[in-house]
């Protein structure tokens, strides 16, 4: 799959909300709900594949492997995936992009923060050199054009708005399809980035990992250049909560009757049982009730 569908969303005069998925079932649910793009985060893969925190345990290969299992369920809906810092230098970033492309991933976001264990800095408390970060973006844009590149900077928390604008500009000039100024909580600051970089689409996230997000409307975000809003772990946390409640109910009463659940028929339709038994059946009915 090429990046064209994802790049098209970045040009629309609307905000697209991009929920997180982590396996074929959640991918199919997101498509059934009408989402136009979905997101695969390193945190979700680390938790569901390894039972580990998002502290560098997951590598590009594991993200790509997970993507190969869920892309068929997306039926053409573009998948944006977490690429950490590219897992090394520009050559490593290119390798990551190629692996992602082969897996069917449409786009990736690449960050410029120092990850745990690299350089002795705590995660999110330092950023790498701007030249190295821009070189990774440039290498990906030139050598893996079939992948849309969203360049994330974490400079806002440690170096302020001015450095954030400089870095976003450098990454856009290097070939990024959009910029992702992480940590900005002031709409005026987003507007300042947009004013400095007219025509460069922006991406923001609403992750529970960083609480107290401002209640911006889509209209407000659109006015300051935001085109994608990521919700990387909302569904994962909701699923974990539902599972926790169910396990507790079974343990306390011997049954899950009091817990709201998806009907068995909807589940079998979601995972393709009808299609397996009847090749003419649709993968996920358009009228699926979840």
Automatic annotation (TrEMBL):
The keyword Kinase does not apply. Gene3D superfamilies: Phosphoenolpyruvate-binding domains. InterPro entries: ICL/PEPM, Pyrv/PenolPyrv_kinase-like_dom, Pyrv_kinase-like_dom_sf. GO terms for molecular function: methylisocitrate lyase activity. Signal peptide: none annotated. It comes from Actinoplanes octamycinicus. Keywords: Lyase. The keyword Lyase applies. Its EC number is 4.1.3.30. This is Methylisocitrate lyase. Pfam families: PEP_mutase (PF13714).
């Amino acid at each position: 799959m090429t990046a064209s569908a994802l790049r098209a969303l970045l040009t629309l005069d609307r905000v697209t909300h991009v929920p997180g998925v982590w396996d074929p079932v959640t991918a199919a649910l997101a498509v059934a709900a009408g989402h136009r793009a979905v997101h695969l985060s390193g945190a979700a893969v680390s938790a569901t594949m390894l039972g580990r925190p998002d502290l560098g345990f997951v590598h590009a290969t594991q993200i790509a492997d997970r993507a190969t299992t869920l892309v068929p369920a997306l039926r053409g809906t573009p998948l944006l995936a977490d690429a950490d810092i590219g897992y090394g230098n520009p050559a490593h970033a290119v390798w990551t992009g190629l692996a992602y492309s082969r897996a069917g991933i449409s786009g990736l976001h690449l960050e410029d923060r120092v990850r745990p264990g690299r350089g002795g800095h705590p995660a999110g408390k330092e950023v790498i050199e701007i030249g190295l970060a821009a070189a990774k973006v440039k290498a990906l844009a030139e050598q893996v054009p079939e992948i849309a590149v969203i360049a994330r900077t974490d400079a806002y928390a440690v170096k302020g708005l001015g450095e954030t604008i400089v870095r976003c500009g450098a990454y856009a000039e290097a070939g990024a399809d959009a910029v992702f100024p992480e940590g900005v909580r002031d709409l005026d600051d987003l507007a300042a980035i947009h004013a400095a970089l007219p025509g460069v689409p922006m991406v923001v996230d609403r992750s529970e990992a960083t609480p107290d997000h401002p209640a911006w409307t889509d209209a407000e975000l659109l006015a300051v250049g935001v085109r994608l809003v990521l919700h990387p772990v909302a569904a994962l946390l909701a699923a974990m909560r539902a599972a926790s409640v169910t396990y507790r109910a079974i343990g306390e009463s011997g049954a899950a009757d009091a817990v709201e659940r998806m009907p068995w028929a909807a589940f079998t339709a979601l995972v393709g049982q009808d299609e397996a038994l009847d090749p003419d059946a649709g993968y996920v009915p358009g009228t699926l009730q979840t």
